[in-house]
Every structure is written in C-alpha cells, then in structure tokens.
Amino acid sequence: DAKTTQPTSMDCAEGRAANLPCNHSTISGNEYVYWYRQIHSQGPQYIIHGLKNNETNEMASLIITEDRKSSTLILPHATLRDTAVYYCIVRGRMDSNYQLIWGAGTKLIIKP
Amino acid sequence: SQTIHQWPATLVQPVGSPLSLECTVEGTSNPNLYWYRQAAGRGLQLLFYSVGIGQISSEVPQNLSASRPQDRQFILSSKKLLLSDSGFYLCAWKTTSGLTDTQYFGPGTRLTVL
After folding, report:
1. Which residues are CB-contacts of A40 (< 8 A; sequence separation ≥ 6)?
2. Is B68 exposed, middle or buried (0-12, 13-18, 19+ CB in 10 A)?
3. Does B77 contact A at CB distance below 8 Å?
4. pLDDT tens, B46-56?
5. Backbone phi, then psi, for A82, in 5-degree steps?
6. Within an 8 Å CB–CB cutoff, is residue B32 touching chain A?
7. Which among A42, A94, A97 has CB closest to B107?
8. Of A94, A108, A111, B33, which has the fewest Cβ atoms less than 10 A away?
9. Inter-chain touch A102–B45, beta carbons under 8 Å
10. What is the largest CA-CA distance in chain A?
C-alpha cells in the first residue's frame, strides 16, 4: 500500500501557483519525500525531494511541515505543459529491501 | 550525463507469444535497475529490481521474468504473453552511491496483448 495520500485531481489557472498537497503521516525519521510527475504516455520525471528542510530547484519548491507528516509541492508559475499526474512518494519496505511505493497521484490540469 | 533507453516504444503482440523488452543505461556504473508496469490510470507497480549483474529480485509473482546480463542492461521477458500483461512498462535506474532513492525513468514501452 502507498504510504502517502494525495487528492485525486486538481485544477489551476495558467500563470498561477499550483500547490499540491500530500499526507505522509507514517513517515519515518530517515525517509525522504520524493515528487515525480508523469506527462501522458511518458516516463515519470523526477522533480524534487527533501528530508526536513524546505527545498527549491529550477522546477519547483517543496515545503515540509515541521512534524514531517505532510508536504506541499509548489509550481510557482504553472504553464499548460505542467499538466500531468504528480506523485508524492516515500520509501516503503518490500521484501528485504526498501523501495519507492507509488500511489495513484494527483492529476493536475492547468487551464488557460 | 546519464541517459536511459528503452525499446521498442510500442509493441502489439498476440496472446501466447514471447516477449523481450530491453533497457540500457549510459553514463553510470553499477546502477540499481528496475522494471515497473503501469495499468491505464493507475500508479506504478514494481515488477523486478536488480542490484548487480545476475541479481534479480521479483516483487510480484507472474509469468514475466527479468535478466541482467551486463552491468547496464536490463531485460524483461515472457515465454507466453497473457491479455493481462498489457500495459506501460517502465525501466528506471538509481545510483548506488549517496543516501537518497531518486530513480530516473526511461521513456517506456506500451505493450498491447491481443
């Protein structure tokens, strides 16, 4: 089972900030939060990851709450090309190793 | 820089036919390699992962198999395809150095079994 909870879908107006929430209440102290996105019929694209501190790169910002039980991915100026399914992921234990466990993600639709 | 290749991009196969999908990675050594399958509208399901040549771990029992004949080559196979094998197959790699689990994905293979 996925260790994260995300809304099924969201809309955002082009040019506005898109804020995508994620709950990960069972996250362990040494587990990172990862964000990927998948544009239709393409392989997932890595966006950003973080442990405790907020992170920013050329694609997005990641805000992690102090208790680390939730996070928000921020796309500061959404464009039509940001329409995709966004996945929030933490590690989970599978067999004898830890792997990334993928949920269904949030379908983000950017509207003109 | 690192790149990952998958082929073919699309494939239509009859039920009962064999399958071979190939994935290669460039620009890195001794990566962890992964095969995922994605059904329409769903998240990714991990099928196999490999931490080295000849080392394969299976996450889901099925009629698929994987092999890693070379450090940067990962192959997904089946002797007889089922209708339920249709889906989007994705290969990914991860560096074995560092502390994070960031995986990088190939473009995928769309498999339709008829």
Report:
1. A84
2. buried
3. no
4. 899 999 999 99
5. -85, -5
6. no
7. A42
8. A111
9. yes
10. 47
Number of inter-chain CB pairs under 8 A, A vs B: 54
B57: amino acid identity, one letter: S
Measured distance CA(A104)–CA(A88) in Å, rounded = 9
Q: Averaged over A44-71, what is the pLDDT? A: 94
A34 touching B (Cβ < 8 Å): yes
CA distance B79 to chain A (A): 25
Q: What is the b/e burial string over A68-105, where b = at least 16 CB atoms within 10 angstroms of the residue's CB?
A: bebbbbbbeebeeebbbbbbbbbbbeeeeeebbbbbeb
B36 vs A1 pLDDT, higher one? B36
Whole-number Å distance between alpha carbons of A112 and B111 = 33
CA distance A60 to chain B (A): 16
Q: Are A108 and A10 in contact (CB under 8 A)?
A: yes
Give per-residue pLDDT as tens, B72-83. 999 999 999 999
pLDDT band at B65 (very low <50, low <70, confident <90, very high): very high
Task: Quickly state the pLDDT bin for A48 (edges 50, 70, 90).
Answer: very high
Contact check, Cβ <8 Å, A42/B59 = no
Which chain A residue's Cα is nearest to B45?
A: A102
Distance (Å) from the C-alpha of residue B108 to the closest C-alpha of chain A?
6
